Amino acid sequence: MKKTIAIYPGSFDPPTNGHLDLIARGSKIFDELIVAILRNADKSPLFSLAERRLMLENLTDDFKNVRVDTFDGLTVEYAARVGANAMLRGIRAISDYEYELQMALMNRKLHPELEAVFMMPAEQYSYISSRLVREVAQLGGSIKDLVPEMVEQRLKEKLDPAIKLQHARKPKAGRR
Asked: What is the pTM of this model?
């Protein structure tokens, strides 16, 4: 019987509870799930590739069939290199579906043996994205329940100087 290896590609900047939900559920479906962190030179991530990898390795340590890796270039070429026959993708909204459908069709053209598997996150995570988590955290809002506690702490450590500077620049109430 053929082993089913899936990749779950993304930037994971930062990893969210939505990501972990898909990893946990994907680990039950596939023989092996590779969380593949994309190294994208066009983006300026908040966390370095090494930081994201370390966080994801710690967060997925309990899953015996999940491993974390990094890659750059075409996702389908990475999938072929690691012997993956499926790619897990999360869909939160119609806008995600439209984008993911287009990508899946292009990936099928480039690598017909790679199947796209779409999963919806649990309802409580359906609105969470790394981008929104970063924005809320950068503006000093609570990200509790959006990311694992370890990620929340890392975000606070990373952003604390920026938050202090932002608050220092605000005019004090009652001063003119």
From this structure: 0.87
Catalytic member of 11, 52, 130, 134: 130
Whether 67 is catalytic is no
Which pair of structure tokens corresponds to residue 71?
Answer: 């890659």
- Three-state DSSP at 87 gives strand
Count of domains in the chain? 1
Query: Annotated catalytic, 43?
Result: yes
Domain holding 53, by residue range, is 5-127
19 given a catalytic annotation: yes
Query: In CATH, what number is assigned to the domain containing residue 60?
Result: 3.40.50.620
pLDDT digits (tens, 9 = 90+) for 14-36: 999 999 999 999 999 999 999 99
What DSSP character marks residue 120? P
